[in-house]
Design brief:
By secondary structure, the chain is of the alpha/beta class. It contains eight helices and four strands.
Length: about 170
Amino acid sequence: SIAIGYSQGGRQVLQSLSLNPCRYHAAVIISAHPGLLTQEERMLRLENDQVWANRFRTEGWDELMEKWNGQAVFGGMPPPFVRYEKHYDRTRLAETLITGSLGRQPDLRPMIAALQIPVLWMTGACDAHSSAIAGSVTLSHPLSAKIQVPKACHRVPWENPDFFYNTLS
């Protein structure tokens, strides 16, 4: 089986691999972070995620989505889809930001470097932050690769779906 994860889902795949590196035959990681390097970075991230969690609990949906989509990680690209409040449980979203915070994740770079499966690590060419982070990751398997997807920022599968799907096929 092949594990595939985008952003926080990519971090969840990495955490799953850290617990059981033989669980999958290959992995595709998209716009994910392998882990912050210092305790200070982790604390700052936890604080930031708490702010966002509070916003998800209290702010008006349209204003919240405008702020969320305006984050630097999205590179100023318009969202490729509309999120309707009726499709989400805002309390669960807030809880996910806290329980799944990057600030709670250990640095998984050593585990990633030791993986004995092929890993395809994808970032958007317009996402300098995720691309720089990908540069800090060592992929050891000879069939592993890092790809920067043209005309995409953080939301790779939706911002350049043709390139994304052609790469996977």
